[in-house]
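Cross-posting from the modeling subforum.

Setting up a comparison between two proteins and wanted a second pair of eyes on the formatting. Protein 1 (sequence, then structure tokens):
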Amino acid sequence: MTTLGPRRRDRLTAAAPTRHGQLRKSHPVAGVFRLLGIALAVVLVAAVSVGGVAVWQVTSSIKSGVKLTDSSGKAVQPPPEIGAIDGGVNLLLAGTDTRTGQGGQFSNKADQAASSGAGNNDVTMLLHISEDHTNATVISFPRDLMIPIPACPRPNGGTVGATSVAMFNTTLSRGGINCTVLTVQKMTGLKIPFAATISFDGVIGMSDAVGGVTVCLADPLKDPYVGLDLPAGTATLQGSDALAFVRSRHGVGDGSDLGRISNQQVFLSALSRKLTSGGVLGNPVQLYSIAKTAANNMELTDGLSNPSTMVQIALALKDIGLGNITFLQYPTASDPSNPNRVVPIASSAAVLNAALVADKPIQLSGQIGRAAELDPNATAVPSASPTPTPTKGGKTPTPTPSPTATAAAEAPVVLPSTITGQTAAQQTCSKRSN
């Protein structure tokens, strides 16, 4: 169900972006099958944290219990209370394009032939929570990124050999989620102990569970490949409409996968604001629904299968201000060998990787994504920490330290301008290229 409201949009001036990683146009039917491979991993960040918060809030609301004793009358000691996880967290989130077990619109023979089994990781994000639990970063890795892939153990035994260059989104089908983890570890230098995958059904269920997500559209979004035709303004999306919105490529930006990543960041930042300020975290029914949907539609690695771990990660996230939650795209440029693919910008990636490995706070200095612009009608969003005020075009100035900041507070690492993204506090609108 889609709820729309008229809204005036004052166009922000920005330079037209280069079209890195733009895919070839094709017959609409073939395009639909390919676009079905864009699963929504963006809600996974919320799913992991909110699912844990749901368990935590339910258990914390239980009334005092009867004291138990053993046969000698000695009190039986309860297990220790669960607190936030010690130290930082690196959690890989992958959206699989598999049609296996999806049913519904993905159950026909053409869909099953297009992708079955593990599928490809057409959406991949890495959640990094700092050691002191004061900031979080979500890094999106383009599906068309051409990189070396290390040797990966097969889920059922044996090994898939390393390759000097291949598309990043083949890692899941090559060796399961473990192969995707090993590849991202090689790219970033981080150790990643937690990982999960989510399917199409999980995306639909998550958006329904939160009661829909309201997004801003600077331009009409018309994308027949995913079945969306939305006017400019605001739209509250849930169910299949939410899935179609974040899968859309032809309706946003320059038609590239990089534009789609930017559009997903618009959705995810709006979702983050709803979770923190829209009453979701205070609604036990919604929290339980989110946790149940996550459990039914996510495949978790061993490190996440323990409910206590989910709760601990949630507790590490719950007090991070929106201004300290950053969504960014791994830095890329056009592949000289193929204009429809992208390669890492080594110098920019090195700065980002070093900041993540050293657990330094980061600050964006470049543009917001190519399929987004700042909402000129936005109202201020409360943040737990000072948030830089963005200027037109998405530039984020160096923040002035708060007078109450402690001397121990670290100055953020200012990322190169080739790294695009936004914070959860920045209210943005999806757009087409100028």
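Protein 2 (same layout):
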Amino acid sequence: MVRKRNPNGAGTITKRKDGRHMGRAYVTTPDGTRERLTVYGKTWEEAHDKLLKALAQEKAGIPQTVKSWKLGDWLDHWLEHVVKVSKRPSTYVLYELMTRLYLKPGLGKRPLNRLTVKDCQTFFNQRIAAGDGESKVRNMRTTLSAALTRAMKEELIQRNVARLVEFSFENKDADKNEPWTPDEVRRFLKTATGDQLYPAFVMVFYLGLRRGEALGVRWADVDWTGREIRIRKQSQRAGHSLHLSDVKTRAGRRPLPLLSVVRDALTDHQDLQNEWRDKAGDKWTESGLVITTRTGRQVEPRNFNRSFDRIRAAAGLRHLTPHGARHTCASLLGELRVEPRAAMEILGHSRSSVTLEIYQKASSEARRRALKKVEKRLRGD
């Protein structure tokens, strides 16, 4: 029997002891180096076809992956060489946590280039069935999707299957974060008067600031003469330390009017902070921040949450998260028919669709007024 030979320049094919045929040829990898690619086939023809396909891509100038990544190994590589050096510390902490606790145990052994929509859908369905909340599951998908997007850029995979996963959550607690009415906001702020975080609460409700933005305002950002407050920084916890970093997007960097109620709160707080500085003496840490501890340090975001909930309970108000407080401002902008573009700039949204989505979620009071109008019309009043 005449042994089949591969033509020169078409790689080599040999038969292994296990009966399979192994084809090998040099190709260009995504980083520009030349490495030997190995393919396998049950027959010589199958191995030959795979080699031809690889060499056709080589001729077309398409880089090819030589290393066969497991998803878990790729996630580790991505975290260390991409996320850690290019993303915020808080982003790295979140991605690392989602990877270590959930993605690697659940999907880590899957070959990166053979990960399917079904694999991901099954994994996320199992996490939801296990009782994981919507926010946590979405963070898992965000992490996986970001890692797969990078793999696509490096031409390790052809598509991002994480983007094709669909979720179905029962929103049992939707009413718990219904925006407050103006009366409820006034009751909360009246109860919060005198609290060291009072100016932050005012900025969240009146200016629609995020929690981190309110805690990241510096005195240098307050333009008393121009009656303006510039949102530039945000306070975030990343692992075991607090960071003052730039806001995430260009849209987040925004000037806002220094409303009289905000100006009054800041003026009173400036006097209070000066008293703290004198009392602390050498123990004072000069951070330049508006909202600080009694020794000048950054305030823990979770302590903001605790204070918010404590004051809410003391005021006898229904449940609302600090982020829901920001949505209260957004919802009022919608009810007052503020132009969406203006609202988008006030809230620091980078996409108008986010602002419009909030606008479309009418408050219970707005729904009541709307149906009252329907009732009046149908009754002929």
